[in-house]
Design goal:
about 400 residues; alpha/beta; Rossmann fold; seven-stranded parallel sheet; 13 strands; globular
Length: about 400
């Protein structure tokens, strides 16, 4: 059986963040065709947990989880960035440190037929493993167009958050340069959204850009809603991510004051809110769940799912999860970008505070509208299930051969 090196920033899991879920989909498809060695870990994503790694032992041949918590070089880099110092270009934290290189040296004698790199920041790790020998075919899964996503985040931060605005703008510049250098050199490039294919191919003169959309586990039967009092409006997403905490603040400032706390409750599920937001998540008509292990129970109680997202990239896990859990979704157009869904059929679109208030009132007042939207969305997401995503990855497992990296 051929051997494949799979490098990912977070431990692949069937639930969790979009990064973990997309990694799981690709890993499940690739292990059907390759004996896989997994290298996992990046400071930007959760630490590898022993239980998550144990679940993968029977799936992959070997696992190396990079140890960031005890790496002094990572600590020094993090401290330097907090105080505004530059030890290297602003995106250089992805470069393996000496302790990481010692961990990766265990793989120097392994011969790989192919490498699959999930996210641009794992490319330096992959090249450190493969250094000093002929390179195999190298596939890169961007998920989203990272430099363009950083530009969108910079615009979202704007003048109200000047430090974040500068940081994201600098990262966008650094990532764009890195993309110009490396994207033309990989064998194949994967993205999540069809809309990114032509744009990236045209920008970088690429011949092989393939869209593989994100997917979620879809029940065989649409989950029925619970009738609860007060009616639950649900937002799910990590609150350390600017578009998510910006979206929750939008709801708290502009939408929720229009509803009685006794009749409607906003449930927010997500970790790491900034202190200014954390204080606002408590009070009448509000509930905060920091780290739900699984979200099924939250969706079961919710009458409506909310996605007030104004920046981001790739395809949106929030929308897919709401569809799969059988709940009607209200979303900005940015929150469903990259998905071939229709307004007023699969979801209700809202941009302004008035549109959000009107859409919520319409769904809460009309059970028939909730049922119609949720049913159409559930039927749609069934065609984008995890099973179908894994099958697509398996079909694409063997593709363009031969490395382009010099």
């Amino acid at each position: 059986m051929k051997r494949l090196l799979f490098a990912a920033p977070a431990v692949p899991r069937p639930t969790g963040s979009g990064v973990q879920m997309r990694g799981w989909m690709f890993l499940q498809g690739l292990v059907r065709r390759y004996a896989v060695t997994l290298v996992v870990g990046s400071p930007g994503f959760p630490e590898a947990r022993a239980l998550d790694l144990q679940r993968l032992r029977g799936l992959v041949q070997q696992i190396i989880a990079l140890d960031f918590r005890r790496d002094p070089f990572v600590r020094v880099r993090s401290l330097a960035r907090r105080v505004g110092l530059r030890m290297a270009p602003c995106w250089d934290w992805a470069e393996p440190t000496p302790p990481m290189r010692r961990q990766l040296s265990r793989l120097h004698e392994c011969a790989f037929d192919r490498a699959h790199v999930f996210r641009l920041n794992m490319l330096p790790v992959t090249l450190a493993v493969l250094a000093g020998r002929p390179l195999p075919a190298l596939d890169l899964d961007l998920d989203d167009w990272e430099s363009e996503t950083r530009l969108a985040l910079s615009r979202l931060a704007g003048s109200n958050q000047p430090a974040l605005h500068r940081r994201y703008a600098e990262e966008a510049t650094a990532l764009a340069e890195y993309e110009r250098t490396w994207l033309p050199r990989v064998s194949r490039l994967f993205v999540a959204a069809e809309t990114d294919v032509q744009a990236i191919a045209g920008r970088h003169g690429l011949a092989t850009v393939v869209a593989v959309g994100n997917s979620v586990e879809v029940p065989s039967v649409q989950p029925p809603p619970l009738e609860c009092d007060p009616a639950d409006l649900l937002f799910v997403g990590g609150l350390g991510y600017l578009p998510n905490h910006h979206g929750v603040e939008f709801l708290l400032d502009n939408v929720m004051p229009a509803f009685s706390a006794g009749a409607v409750r906003l449930t927010v599920a997500g970790a790491k809110p900034p202190p200014s937001l954390r204080r606002r998540l408590f009070g009448p008509g509000r509930r905060w769940i920091e780290a739900p292990e699984r979200v099924e129970a939250l969706y079961a109680r919710a009458q409506v799912a909310l996605a007030p997202i104004h920046a981001g990239g790739g395809t949106r896990i929030k929308a897919l999860e709401a569809f799969a859990r059988g709940r009607p979704l209200i979303a900005t157009r940015a929150a469903v970008a990259g998905l071939d869904v229709e307004e007023n059929r699969h979801y209700l679109a809202a941009e302004t505070p008035g549109e959000w208030i009107e859409a919520i009132r319409a769904l809460l007042a009309r059970r028939d509208l909730r049922d119609r939207i949720a049913k159409a969305a559930f039927e749609w997401v069934g065609r984008h299930s995890l099973t179908r995503g894994i099958e697509q990855v398996e079909a694409l497992a063997d593709g363009a051969e031969g490395p382009r990296v010099p």
